[in-house]
UniProtKB/TrEMBL annotation:
Keywords: Hydrolase, Signal
GO molecular function, one term: arylsulfatase activity
EC number(s) given by UniProt: 3.1.6.1
Pfam families: Sulfatase
Enzyme class: hydrolase
Gene responsible for this protein: atsA_1
Leader sequence residues: 1-25
Residue ranges constituting the Sulfatase N-terminal domain according to the UniProt record: 34-382
Name used for this protein in its record: Arylsulfatase
C-alpha cells in the first residue's frame, strides 16, 4: 500500500512537469514556424498607395506595413492579368512554364447548346483548371503542418474540377472561383469550400458564371469575405497557418460598365467633386486599407503578431474599367502602361513585407523579383523542402538583412496571349518587350535609368537584342493549350 501511495505521489509530481514541457515544446515549434499571410489586391496600381507616392487616396494601414517592414521598389507580378498572375504565385513557375497562362472568358453560346454542356466544358477545359500534378504553395505548406485558408478570388479552377482550391492544398476556401464571377460585388452566391452559399442579392441577367449587375445590392462580397477570413485567423491562431487573402478590391464590375466601381458608400470621398467612378475607386482602396488594419489588430490581440510574416501586393497594374481613368489618381505612378501591358505599369506592383524583429522596419529593397519567388520563400520560411525546377528564388536572405547572400535572377519572363500577344524579359537594368510574340518588333529600355520606358535602345544596342532573344527562347516551353502566334517581321527594321 505504501509503495502504491509513493508511486501515485511521484506521478502527481511528474505529470505537471511533463505537461508543461510538452506545452513549451509545442509553443517553441510554433515559434519556429511563422504564420504566413499573403494579401493580394486586385488591379491596385504601383502608385495607388501612400507609401508609393499616392497623394489623395488614404491608405494609412497599408502604409504602416511599409513603415514597420520592407518596401520593394522593383517587384513584379506574375502576369499583367488575373489568372496567370495567380498561377505564377501558386506554382513558382513563370508564364513560359506554368499551366494557366492567360484569362479565358466564357463566351456566349447559341441556343442549341445547353447550360449543362457549357458547364461541362468549363469544368474540363484544361486552360481553366489546374491539373492534379501541379504543386501549389498551399500543398507545400500543408507538408510543413500548416492550416491553409484562401479567402477571395481563386481564378485557377472551376466548380467540380481538379483546380478547386480544396483539391490544391487549401483546407478552407470562401469566395469566388471564376474571375468573371468575381467582377460582381453583389453576387447571388459565393463558394465555401466546394458548395455554393446563396446570398440575398438579385442579379436579373446573371450569366453562367454568376457575373452580372445586382438590382438590390444587399450583401457586399468583400465584407463577407473579410469576416470569414478573420474568423479563420481566430480559429487557427494557436497553430501555424497560411492565409491567402486574395481580395477583389479595387477591380471593377465590368458588367456594370460605367457604374462598375461597386462599393456600399463613398466613405471619406463622398463630398469630393469627382465622378462616381473615381469616388468609388478611392473608397474601395480605403475600404481595403481599413480591413488590413482590422487584420493587423487581430494579430496583436491574439498575440501572434511577432510570429507572423505578412506580404502585401497586387496581381497586376491598374485598370481603366468601370467608368474610371487610371490617370485620375496617377495609379501607375512614374511607370508607363496599365493592366494588359507588359510595360512596367502593367506588371511592376507594390510589395510590402512585415515581420517584427526579423525584417528591419522602414527598409527598402531594390531586389528584382516577382511572384514566382513566393513559393520557394514560403518553403524556406517554414523549413520544408522546396520543389525542384522552379523559376522562383527564395528571398529570405533579402528579407532578413542578408542581401549580400541573396541569389539574383538571371532574368524574369512574361508572355501574354491577349491583344495580339506579347512577351517581356527583365535582365539586370534592362527590359525587352516583343509584340507580337516571337516577332522582330522588340523594344528595350534601361528601366533603372528610364523608369517610364521612353527611350528604346533596341536599334542602337544589337547586343542587348541578341541577349534578350536568347532569354526569350530559353524561357518559353510549348504548351498544347496555349498557341504561340506565327512570328512576324518588323517592316520598320
Amino acid at each position: 500500500m505504501r509503495i502504491l501511495f509513493r508511486t501515485l505521489l511521484l506521478l502527481v509530481l511528474i505529470l505537471p512537469v511533463v505537461s508543461s514541457d510538452s506545452l513549451q515544446s509545442a509553443e517553441k515549434q510554433h515559434a519556429e514556424k511563422p504564420n504566413v499571410i499573403f494579401i493580394m489586391a486586385d488591379d491596385l496600381g504601383y502608385g495607388d498607395l501612400g507609401c508609393y507616392g499616392q497623394q489623395v487616396i488614404q491608405t494609412p494601414n497599408i502604409d504602416k506595413l511599409a513603415k514597420e517592414g520592407m518596401l520593394f521598389e522593383q517587384y513584379y507580378s506574375g502576369s499583367t492579368v488575373c489568372a496567370p498572375s495567380r498561377c505564377v504565385l501558386m506554382t513558382g513557375l513563370h508564364t513560359g512554364h506554368c499551366h494557366i497562362r492567360g484569362n479565358v472568358g466564357i463566351k456566349k453560346v447559341s441556343d442549341e447548346v445547353t447550360e449543362k454542356e457549357v458547364l461541362d466544358f468549363i469544368r474540363t477545359d484544361t486552360r481553366l483548371n489546374l491539373p492534379p500534378e501541379e504543386k501549389t504553395v498551399a500543398e507545400v505548406l500543408k507538408e510543413a503542418g500548416y492550416q491553409t485558408g484562401l479567402f477571395g478570388k481563386w481564378g485557377l479552377g472551376q466548380e467540380n474540377s481538379t483546380g478547386l482550391p480544396t483539391r490544391q492544398g487549401f483546407d478552407e476556401f470562401f469566395g469566388y472561383l471564376d474571375q468573371k464571377h468575381a467582377h460582381n460585388y453583389y453576387p447571388t452566391f459565393l463558394i465555401h469550400n466546394e458548395e455554393r452559399v446563396p446570398l440575398k442579392n438579385i442579379v436579373p441577367n446573371e450569366d453562367i458564371t454568376g457575373a452580372g449587375k445586382s438590382s438590390n445590392k444587399v450583401e457586399y462580397s468583400h465584407d463577407l469575405i473579410v469576416d470569414r477570413m478573420l474568423q479563420f485567423v481566430d480559429e487557427h491562431h494557436s497553430e501555424p497557418f497560411f492565409l491567402y487573402w486574395a481580395d477583389t478590391i479595387p477591380h471593377a464590375n465590368n458588367e456594370a460598365r460605367d457604374e462598375g466601381m461597386e462599393v456600399p458608400d463613398f466613405g471619406p470621398y463622398a463630398d469630393k467633386d469627382w465622378s462616381a467612378a473615381e469616388k468609388g475607386f478611392a473608397a474601395m482602396v480605403t475600404r481595403l486599407d481599413t480591413h488590413v488594419g482590422e487584420l493587423m489588430k487581430k494579430l496583436r490581440e491574439l498575440r501572434i503578431d511577432d510570429n507572423t510574416i505578412v506580404f502585401f501586393t497586387s496581381d497586376n497594374g491598374p485598370h481603366k474599367e468601370g467608368g474610371r481613368d487610371a490617370d485620375f489618381f496617377d495609379s501607375n505612378g512614374p511607370l508607363r502602361g496599365i493592366k494588359r501591358a507588359l510595360y512596367d505599369g502593367g506588371i511592376r506592383v507594390p510589395m510590402l513585407v512585415r515581420w517584427p524583429r526579423k525584417i528591419k522596419a522602414g527598409s527598402r529593397s531594390d531586389y528584382i523579383g516577382y511572384f514566382a519567388d513566393f513559393l520557394p520563400t514560403a518553403a524556406e520560411l517554414t523549413a520544408v523542402t522546396t520543389p525542384e525546377d522552379l523559376d522562383g528564388i527564395s528571398i529570405v536572405p533579402e528579407l532578413t538583412g542578408h542581401s549580400e547572400s541573396q541569389p539574383q535572377h538571371e532574368y524574369l519572363y512574361w508572355e501574354f496571349y491577349e491583344q495580339g500577344s506579347r512577351q517581356a524579359v527583365r535582365f539586370g537594368d534592362y527590359k525587352a518587350i516583343v509584340e507580337p510574340m516571337y516577332s522582330d518588333n522588340m523594344e528595350i529600355y534601361n528601366v533603372t535609368k528610364d523608369i517610364a520606358e521612353q527611350h528604346n535602345l533596341a536599334i542602337h544596342q544589337p547586343e542587348l537584342v541578341k541577349r534578350a532573344k536568347s532569354y526569350i527562347k530559353e524561357a518559353h516551353t510549348p504548351s498544347p493549350v496555349w498557341t504561340v502566334p506565327k512570328p512576324r517581321r518588323n517592316k520598320n527594321r
